[in-house]
Specification:
This protein is of the alpha+beta class and 334 residues long. Among the domains are: 42 residues; 91 residues, Chitinase A, domain 3, CATH 3.10.50. 53% of the residues lie in helices and 14% in strands. It is built from 11 helices and 6 strands. The strands form 2 sheets. A 4-stranded antiparallel sheet has the order 4-3-6-5. A two-stranded antiparallel ribbon has the order 1-2. β5 and β6 form a beta hairpin. α2 packs across α3, α4 packs across α9 and α5 crosses α9. The longest helix has 44 residues.
Length: 334
């Protein structure tokens, strides 16, 4: 009896357990199917459009959106739709170019390789720059104090500019005549009488939009004074017709100065790193670039240009100061 009951009980448990297993298996399959559907839905949700079976994804749109500076949150949706249309046009152009085998054209291949090298080199610059620490408050204050014409004594300049076509040997005469002229009109009459070709222009420029290496020169000018500068055409005369003081305090200047100092430190670190790499690399100049034995010293190669950080100020490195965009945009000045 007991044995018989155990057997039947075991049989029942076996059948019951089998049912549980089948139910669990079925439930698992349903769940897996559901997960598959969710994955398909998630994948589909990332597709913004299909162009002849080729997908344009939301990620592509977002990547382009990230490159748009000054885009407000409320503008994102409309901008995304415009970007999608441009990406559709681009995809159509790519497909047609591939149909014409333009992607195999030697010039196209060369451009693609050049773009690839630029992207990789820029990635190296950005990675190397990560080692730079943010400037301290003391560093920022030191820079602020060293550039009064740009900050504490900042002025807005009303300028009259005259660009003159002249030879280098004519500059001393022009400079002397400018100093002797009672007014800018007298100087203009001199130019006309002596057959100089010139053109004039008027402009209102804040300190940061002047050549930063000449900013101290302009800062010393009084209203009504002029200065003659060498230019690509020959010479440029700049008359300070008037000015007004619009200083920038350290608190407003701090973000722009901090960014400039950080970018400048990154640039110097990358240049130092490249210099070290050149020192240990085997570099051989060939063909017309090979130095001649007699002039090997004079033919020493210039330092290779180094890609600057993407956020670096346009002229900060060369001028040693903040660019117009650093001040006007970074400080919110007009």
């Amino acid at each position: 009896m007991i044995s018989s009951l155990d057997g039947r009980g075991a049989c029942r448990e076996s059948r019951f357990g089998g049912r549980i297993t089948l139910i669990a298996l079925a439930a698992t399959l349903v769940l897996l199917a559901g997960c598959g559907d969710k994955k398909k839905e998630a994948s589909a949700s990332q597709t913004a459009a299909k162009v002849n079976k080729e997908e344009i994804t939301v990620h592509q749109i977002n990547f382009v959106l990230q490159q748009q500076r000054g885009l407000q949150p409320e503008q994102t949706e409309a901008a995304g739709k415009q970007i999608l249309e441009r990406l559709i046009d681009q995809e159509l152009a790519v497909q047609k170019a591939e149909e014409l085998k333009l992607d195999r054209d030697p010039r196209v291949v060369q451009q693609m390789e050049a773009a690839k090298r630029e992207i990789i080199a820029r990635a190296y610059v950005e990675k190397t720059g990560e080692a730079v620490s943010k400037p301290t408050d003391a560093d920022i204050k030191a820079y602020y104090d060293a550039k009064p014409a740009l900050f504490s004594a900042r002025r807005i300049y009303s300028l009259q500019e005259i660009v003159i076509e002249a030879k280098p040997e004519q500059l001393p005469t022009l400079r002397e005549q400018l100093g002797a002229s009672k007014s800018i009109n007298d100087f203009v009459e001199f130019l006309k009488a002596n057959g100089y070709r010139f053109s004039g222009n008027q402009a209102v420029r804040p300190a940061e939009q002047l050549p930063l290496n000449l900013l101290d020169t302009f800062a010393k000018l009084n209203d009504g004074q002029a200065v003659l500068l060498p230019s690509a055409a020959g010479a440029q005369v700049v008359l300070l017709a008037g000015s007004r003081s619009e200083p920038v305090d350290e608190a407003r200047a701090k973000p722009a100065i901090e960014q400039f100092l950080l970018n400048d430190a990154k640039r110097k670190l990358v240049e130092s790193d490249i210099k070290a790499l050149r020192a240990v690399a085997k570099i051989e100049y060939e063909g017309k670039f090979a130095p001649t034995p007699a002039g090997a010293a004079s033919a020493a190669p210039l330092a290779a240009p180094v890609p600057s950080p993407a956020s670096a100020p346009p002229s900060a490195a060369s001028e040693g100061g903040l660019s117009a965009s650093d001040i006007s945009k970074g400080l919110g000045l007009k």
